[in-house]
Every structure is written in structure tokens, then in C-alpha cells.
Amino acid sequence: MPVPDVMFCAQQINIPPELPDIMKQFTKAAIRTQPPDILQWSAAYFSALSKGETLPVKERLEMPVATQKTDTGLTPGLLKVLHKQLARREVVTIQELQQKWKDVCLPVEQLHNILKLGNFGNEVVWMQFFALGCSALGGSIASAVKHACEILTTDPEGGPARIPFATFKYLYSYLAELDGDISQSEASHVLSSLEQNVVCKTGGLIRVHDFYPGTGKI
């Protein structure tokens, strides 16, 4: 026996009053973030929204960054998303990092390469991983710390991109140690020179143009 058609009237359809705004914000977020896997990203978006967690959303639309070797898919905007989600703790688990990486639709191979480079175990020191992520965006330590400043700064876009010198020192020292071409004494000299000539004049902050090639140097 065929199932009879069910008739609905407007009074029977209950549309939550907040739904239009939720869908509007979701659409804007999808346009800004441009996830290659919209279903995967949407699941992560609404999961985070329901839990009151940081959403996997870029602040603005951006083009992928092409490094010297290859376009990895990682961009400053996506690294900033991951930082907002994970930096609340000093150490994160591999499982959580893998999930957040998957949520923003980044290639798994790139994650494995970064984890291997950092020689991480089951847990990851987030700022070390962040430093390696910045390194993946640029071909030199100077480029990496430039990206770090631009991601971490609270200055408006286009501003001096200032960050605490202590943070800069940690990132630069870690990357210099992994690089192998920069001796400990050379790295110490660079940091000492910057601290004496720059930071003392800026209240403990360092700016992009204080060290980046073209506007300054390391």
C-alpha cells in the first residue's frame, strides 16, 4: 500500500530563529577559508561551533603559498588557525594535531615531514611545531621568523608586526639549532646584537623590519 503524501503547512515547520545567521556566518567562513574538502571542513566547523571551540576559519581569503620546493598547501592563514586552536597548551598530542590538521584539509604527507624533522614522539611542543610550520612557508630562517611575526603579532595588518623578543629568541634559536649551518656562537651573537640595538628601544618587542632581508638583516 503506498504511503500517503504528507501535507505540511507553514505552521507545522519550525525554523529556529538563529538558523539564518548561523548559515550566513558558515557561508562567509567557507568563502574565506576555501577548504578543498568542504564536507570534512564543514563537519569540523559545526563540531567546533557546538562545543564553543575556536573555529577552523581563516581571517581573510588568501592564495596558497608556493615555497622554493613545492606548494605544500600550508598557508600563513591556515597556520594561524592551527595556532589559535592549539597554542592554549604548551604540549599537544599527536592525535589532536593530526585531527586539527585534517580538519583544515592539509596534506598528511606535509604533517609527517614536519613531525619527522622535529623528531617528535607522541606529544608535540606546540611552539616548536609552529616554528617548523613557519619554516615550511619560507626558504630561510629569516623568512620563517618573518612569517612567525606576522602570524603572532597583535598589530594591524600592514603594521610593524611586533612580537615579544623572548618569543622571537625561542623560535630563532630552535630553528638555528635544527639548521646545522649556524653555530651556537653565531646564533648567540645575532640575538645579542638584536637585543642590544633594537629591543631596548622598543620595550621588549622586535619588529619584522629589524631583521628581515630587504628591510633589515639577521
UniProtKB/TrEMBL annotation:
Q: What is its main location?
A: other
- Which keywords does the record carry? Cell projection, Cilium, Flagellum
Name of the protein described by the UniProt record: Rhophilin associated tail protein 1 like
Q: What PANTHER family does the entry give? A: EF-HAND DOMAIN-CONTAINING PROTEIN (PTHR14952:SF9), ROPPORIN-1-LIKE PROTEIN (PTHR14952)
Subcellular location(s): the record lists: Cell projection, Cilium, Flagellum
- Which protein family is it in? Belongs to the ropporin family.
Q: Which domain of life is it from?
A: Eukaryota
Which Gene Ontology cellular-component terms appear in the entry? Answer: motile cilium
Q: Does the keyword Isomerase apply?
A: no
